[in-house]
Amino acid sequence: MIVSQCCGRKHSEKTKQKISEALRGKNNAFFGKHHTAETKAKISKAHLGEKNGMWKGDNVSYAALHDWIRNHKPKPEFCEDCNTAEPYDVATISGDYKRDINDFKWLCRSCHMKMDYKHGHRKPSPTTPMIIKCEYCGATFKRGHGRNKQRFCNKSCAGYARGGWR
């Protein structure tokens, strides 16, 4: 009966303060006690991944995803591509940034730069011409940088790709 009478009511600030003071120090049930290392580990494990209130799933920033991968993917002794240098970066294999440990690999800086150029995440230096594949005939050709968005090796391929010469 008493419970039903209190439903929907809120404590006043004065009452909240009294309750807070009454449960401080020696009056608190956990006063003077400490969690063991085993209990702390259990609590930590219980709040990992999707069970954590701050979990965002795949909707995370670039940096946060890389941090997560670095913390969960074991770091090998050598780069996973060249097997000579010490790995420094984690890089996506498919080019998609998703929370999948198997889609990332540890690379040295040199191999990581090469992979980024391959996926189009980095642009080559302005002095080096880009090697492009013609969208119509498949031939490779050199293209400069800047506003030049050339997609075809010559005018005839561009004309045929747009529906043929009329």
Major sheet:
2 strands, antiparallel
Count of extended strands: 4
Widest β-sheet, arrangement of strands:
1-2
Whole-angstrom Rg:
30 Å
> Mean of residue pLDDT?
81
Report the β-strand fraction as a percent range.
5-15%
Topology:
Layout: H1 2-6, H2 13-22, H3 37-46, H4 62-72, E1 89-92, E2 104-107, H5 109-119, E3 130-133, E4 140-143, H6 155-161
Folded structure, characterized:
The chain is an alpha+beta fold. Among the domains are: about 55-120, no CATH class; about 125-165. It is built from 6 helices and 4 strands, in the order ααααββαββα. The protein has helices spanning about 1-5, 15-20, 35-45, 60-70, 110-120, 155-160, and strands at about 90, 105, 130-135, 140-145. It has a two-stranded antiparallel ribbon.
